[in-house]
Write a structure and sequence with these properties.
single chain
Protein backbone atom coordinates (compact mmCIF):
# COMPACT_ATOMS: atom_id res chain seq x y z
CA UNK A 1 0.00 0.00 0.00
CA UNK A 2 2.95 2.34 0.54
CA UNK A 3 4.14 2.56 -3.06
CA UNK A 4 0.77 3.40 -4.70
CA UNK A 5 0.05 6.08 -2.10
CA UNK A 6 3.54 7.53 -2.58
CA UNK A 7 3.08 7.64 -6.36
CA UNK A 8 -0.34 9.26 -6.02
CA UNK A 9 1.09 11.92 -3.71
CA UNK A 10 3.97 12.65 -6.08
CA UNK A 11 1.63 12.96 -9.07
CA UNK A 12 -0.76 15.22 -7.19
CA UNK A 13 2.12 17.36 -5.88
CA UNK A 14 3.53 17.79 -9.40
CA UNK A 15 0.14 18.76 -10.83
CA UNK A 16 -0.56 21.21 -8.00
CA UNK A 17 2.91 22.76 -8.28
CA UNK A 18 2.51 23.27 -12.04
CA UNK A 19 -0.94 24.84 -11.62
CA UNK A 20 0.16 27.19 -8.86
CA UNK A 21 3.26 28.36 -10.71
CA UNK A 22 1.35 28.79 -13.98
CA UNK A 23 -1.33 30.86 -12.23
CA UNK A 24 1.31 33.01 -10.53
CA UNK A 25 3.12 33.62 -13.81
CA UNK A 26 -0.05 34.51 -15.71
CA UNK A 27 -1.42 36.79 -13.01
CA UNK A 28 1.70 38.41 -11.55
CA UNK A 29 5.16 37.57 -12.87
CA UNK A 30 4.87 38.08 -16.63
CA UNK A 31 2.57 41.16 -16.51
CA UNK A 32 4.90 42.90 -14.09
CA UNK A 33 7.98 41.87 -16.04
CA UNK A 34 6.52 43.28 -19.27
CA UNK A 35 5.64 46.49 -17.46
CA UNK A 36 9.17 46.82 -16.10
CA UNK A 37 10.73 46.18 -19.51
CA UNK A 38 8.43 48.69 -21.18
CA UNK A 39 9.27 51.31 -18.57
CA UNK A 40 12.98 50.67 -18.94
CA UNK A 41 12.74 50.92 -22.74
CA UNK A 42 11.03 54.30 -22.47
CA UNK A 43 13.62 55.60 -20.03
CA UNK A 44 16.44 54.42 -22.28
CA UNK A 45 14.93 56.37 -25.18
CA UNK A 46 14.74 59.48 -23.02
CA UNK A 47 18.17 59.07 -21.45
CA UNK A 48 20.85 57.18 -23.44
CA UNK A 49 23.00 56.98 -20.28
CA UNK A 50 20.26 55.22 -18.30
CA UNK A 51 21.40 51.94 -16.68
CA UNK A 52 18.76 49.23 -16.35
CA UNK A 53 18.06 47.88 -12.89
CA UNK A 54 17.77 44.13 -12.32
CA UNK A 55 14.15 43.50 -11.52
CA UNK A 56 13.19 40.19 -9.86
CA UNK A 57 10.17 39.97 -12.17
CA UNK A 58 12.44 40.13 -15.22
CA UNK A 59 14.74 37.51 -13.68
CA UNK A 60 11.80 35.09 -13.33
CA UNK A 61 9.77 35.77 -16.45
CA UNK A 62 11.11 33.13 -18.89
CA UNK A 63 9.82 29.58 -19.33
CA UNK A 64 13.00 27.98 -18.01
CA UNK A 65 12.64 29.76 -14.68
CA UNK A 66 9.00 28.71 -14.56
CA UNK A 67 9.97 25.05 -15.05
CA UNK A 68 12.67 25.38 -12.39
CA UNK A 69 10.18 26.73 -9.87
CA UNK A 70 7.73 23.91 -10.65
CA UNK A 71 10.44 21.34 -9.96
CA UNK A 72 11.49 23.16 -6.80
CA UNK A 73 7.96 23.21 -5.38
CA UNK A 74 7.54 19.55 -6.32
CA UNK A 75 10.73 18.65 -4.48
CA UNK A 76 9.69 20.70 -1.45
CA UNK A 77 6.37 18.86 -1.30
CA UNK A 78 8.11 15.47 -1.33
CA UNK A 79 10.67 16.60 1.26
CA UNK A 80 7.86 17.83 3.52
CA UNK A 81 6.09 14.48 3.28
CA UNK A 82 9.25 12.56 4.11
CA UNK A 83 9.93 14.81 7.09
CA UNK A 84 6.41 14.20 8.42
CA UNK A 85 6.81 10.42 8.03
CA UNK A 86 10.22 10.61 9.68
CA UNK A 87 8.75 12.53 12.61
CA UNK A 88 5.99 9.95 13.10
CA UNK A 89 8.45 7.08 13.09
CA UNK A 90 10.71 8.92 15.52
CA UNK A 91 7.76 9.40 17.88
CA UNK A 92 7.53 5.59 18.19
CA UNK A 93 11.03 5.54 19.66
CA UNK A 94 9.69 7.44 22.66
CA UNK A 95 6.79 5.03 23.21
CA UNK A 96 6.97 1.92 25.35
CA UNK A 97 6.08 -0.58 22.64
CA UNK A 98 7.21 -3.49 24.85
CA UNK A 99 6.26 -2.60 28.45
CA UNK A 100 8.87 -4.65 30.26
CA UNK A 101 9.44 -3.97 33.93
CA UNK A 102 12.96 -3.68 35.30
CA UNK A 103 14.61 -7.08 35.42
CA UNK A 104 11.93 -8.72 33.31
CA UNK A 105 13.13 -11.00 30.50
CA UNK A 106 11.65 -12.60 27.39
CA UNK A 107 11.99 -16.33 26.90
CA UNK A 108 11.45 -18.11 23.58
CA UNK A 109 8.13 -19.38 24.95
CA UNK A 110 6.98 -15.79 25.58
CA UNK A 111 7.67 -14.52 22.05
CA UNK A 112 4.12 -15.03 20.78
CA UNK A 113 2.64 -13.03 23.65
CA UNK A 114 4.96 -10.06 23.12
CA UNK A 115 4.62 -10.25 19.34
CA UNK A 116 0.84 -9.83 19.68
CA UNK A 117 1.38 -6.43 21.29
CA UNK A 118 3.33 -5.25 18.25
CA UNK A 119 0.86 -6.82 15.83
CA UNK A 120 -1.98 -5.01 17.62
CA UNK A 121 -0.61 -1.62 16.59
CA UNK A 122 -2.61 0.29 13.95
CA UNK A 123 -1.70 -0.62 10.36
CA UNK A 124 0.31 2.53 9.50
CA UNK A 125 2.32 2.27 12.73
CA UNK A 126 2.89 -1.49 12.37
CA UNK A 127 4.44 -0.93 8.92
CA UNK A 128 7.05 1.53 10.19
CA UNK A 129 10.67 0.57 10.80
CA UNK A 130 10.78 0.03 14.56
CA UNK A 131 7.77 -2.35 14.92
CA UNK A 132 8.83 -4.32 11.83
CA UNK A 133 12.39 -4.75 13.04
CA UNK A 134 11.35 -5.63 16.60
CA UNK A 135 8.72 -8.09 15.39
CA UNK A 136 11.17 -9.76 13.01
CA UNK A 137 13.75 -10.10 15.77
CA UNK A 138 11.17 -11.62 18.12
CA UNK A 139 10.00 -14.16 15.54
CA UNK A 140 13.59 -15.15 14.74
CA UNK A 141 14.33 -15.57 18.45
CA UNK A 142 11.26 -17.75 18.92
CA UNK A 143 12.13 -19.91 15.92
CA UNK A 144 15.87 -20.38 16.52
CA UNK A 145 16.18 -19.72 20.28
CA UNK A 146 19.29 -17.72 19.41
CA UNK A 147 19.86 -14.13 20.54
CA UNK A 148 22.55 -13.70 17.87
CA UNK A 149 20.08 -14.69 15.15
CA UNK A 150 17.51 -12.26 16.54
CA UNK A 151 20.10 -9.47 16.54
CA UNK A 152 21.13 -10.28 12.97
CA UNK A 153 17.49 -10.29 11.81
CA UNK A 154 16.77 -6.90 13.37
CA UNK A 155 19.90 -5.49 11.79
CA UNK A 156 18.90 -6.90 8.39
CA UNK A 157 15.57 -5.06 8.57
CA UNK A 158 17.34 -1.80 9.45
CA UNK A 159 19.83 -2.21 6.60
CA UNK A 160 17.00 -2.94 4.17
CA UNK A 161 15.24 0.21 5.38
CA UNK A 162 18.39 2.21 4.74
CA UNK A 163 18.55 0.91 1.17
CA UNK A 164 14.84 1.64 0.64
CA UNK A 165 15.14 5.21 1.92
CA UNK A 166 18.18 5.78 -0.27
CA UNK A 167 16.37 4.47 -3.37
CA UNK A 168 13.38 6.73 -2.66
CA UNK A 169 15.74 9.72 -2.69
CA UNK A 170 16.61 9.05 -6.33
CA UNK A 171 13.77 11.19 -7.67
CA UNK A 172 14.80 14.11 -5.47
CA UNK A 173 18.39 13.73 -6.64
CA UNK A 174 17.16 13.76 -10.23
CA UNK A 175 15.27 17.02 -9.59
CA UNK A 176 18.40 18.51 -8.00
CA UNK A 177 20.23 17.66 -11.24
CA UNK A 178 17.39 18.70 -13.56
CA UNK A 179 17.04 22.25 -12.20
CA UNK A 180 20.55 23.43 -13.22
CA UNK A 181 20.23 21.43 -16.45
CA UNK A 182 17.14 23.46 -17.36
CA UNK A 183 19.08 26.60 -16.47
CA UNK A 184 21.80 25.65 -18.95
CA UNK A 185 19.14 24.98 -21.59
CA UNK A 186 17.91 28.54 -21.05
CA UNK A 187 21.47 29.77 -21.42
CA UNK A 188 21.89 27.98 -24.74
CA UNK A 189 18.52 29.22 -25.98
CA UNK A 190 19.28 32.81 -24.98
CA UNK A 191 22.71 32.81 -26.61
CA UNK A 192 21.24 31.25 -29.75
CA UNK A 193 18.57 33.97 -29.94
CA UNK A 194 21.22 36.63 -29.42
CA UNK A 195 23.35 35.21 -32.23
CA UNK A 196 20.32 35.14 -34.52
CA UNK A 197 19.88 38.89 -33.94
CA UNK A 198 23.52 39.79 -34.48
CA UNK A 199 22.66 41.57 -37.75
CA UNK A 200 20.36 43.93 -35.86
CA UNK A 201 23.15 44.69 -33.40
CA UNK A 202 25.41 45.60 -36.35
CA UNK A 203 22.80 48.17 -37.33
CA UNK A 204 22.78 49.68 -33.83
CA UNK A 205 19.68 47.95 -32.41
CA UNK A 206 20.95 46.17 -29.30
CA UNK A 207 17.58 45.69 -27.62
CA UNK A 208 16.92 42.16 -28.88
CA UNK A 209 20.47 40.99 -28.25
CA UNK A 210 20.59 42.28 -24.68
CA UNK A 211 17.17 40.79 -23.92
CA UNK A 212 18.24 37.38 -25.24
CA UNK A 213 21.47 37.49 -23.27
CA UNK A 214 19.43 38.39 -20.21
CA UNK A 215 17.39 35.22 -20.78
CA UNK A 216 20.60 33.23 -21.02
CA UNK A 217 22.09 34.42 -17.76
CA UNK A 218 18.89 34.80 -15.74
CA UNK A 219 17.85 31.17 -16.21
CA UNK A 220 21.21 29.91 -14.99
CA UNK A 221 21.25 32.31 -12.06
CA UNK A 222 17.84 31.19 -10.78
CA UNK A 223 18.72 27.52 -11.36
CA UNK A 224 21.92 27.72 -9.34
CA UNK A 225 20.22 29.55 -6.47
CA UNK A 226 17.44 26.97 -6.30
CA UNK A 227 19.94 24.12 -6.49
CA UNK A 228 21.88 25.47 -3.52
CA UNK A 229 18.74 25.54 -1.39
CA UNK A 230 17.51 22.14 -2.58
CA UNK A 231 20.83 20.37 -2.00
CA UNK A 232 20.98 21.72 1.56
CA UNK A 233 17.48 20.39 2.27
CA UNK A 234 18.34 17.02 0.73
CA UNK A 235 21.45 16.59 2.86
CA UNK A 236 19.51 17.54 5.98
CA UNK A 237 16.72 15.08 5.14
CA UNK A 238 19.18 12.25 4.46
CA UNK A 239 20.92 12.94 7.77
CA UNK A 240 17.58 12.69 9.61
CA UNK A 241 16.72 9.41 7.92
CA UNK A 242 20.10 7.87 8.72
CA UNK A 243 19.80 9.00 12.33
CA UNK A 244 16.35 7.40 12.56
CA UNK A 245 17.72 4.02 11.42
CA UNK A 246 20.63 4.22 13.86
CA UNK A 247 18.31 5.12 16.73
CA UNK A 248 16.01 2.22 15.82
CA UNK A 249 18.97 -0.18 15.97
CA UNK A 250 19.91 1.24 19.37
CA UNK A 251 16.33 0.85 20.62
CA UNK A 252 16.20 -2.80 19.54
CA UNK A 253 19.54 -3.52 21.17
CA UNK A 254 18.80 -1.84 24.49
CA UNK A 255 15.09 -2.50 24.95
CA UNK A 256 14.67 -5.86 23.26
CA UNK A 257 17.86 -7.85 22.70
CA UNK A 258 19.20 -7.23 26.19
CA UNK A 259 15.95 -8.66 27.61
CA UNK A 260 16.10 -11.91 25.68
CA UNK A 261 17.06 -14.97 27.69
CA UNK A 262 17.34 -18.68 26.97
CA UNK A 263 16.21 -20.82 29.91
Amino acid sequence: MRRPSEFAYQAAALALSALCVQAAYMAVVRPRAEAVLAEQAERMKEDPAYVQERSPWVLLRDYEQQAELVLMLWALAMIARKRVVNGRERALLERDLLPLADGMTILPEDVREWARQLEALPGPERETLLPRAALAALHRFGATRSIADASARGREICEAETDRLDSEMSLLRYIAWAIPAIGFIGTVRGIGDAMAQAHRAMQGDLGGVTQSLGTAFNSTLIALLLSLVLMFLLHHLQEQQERLVRDAETWIDRRLLQRLRIA
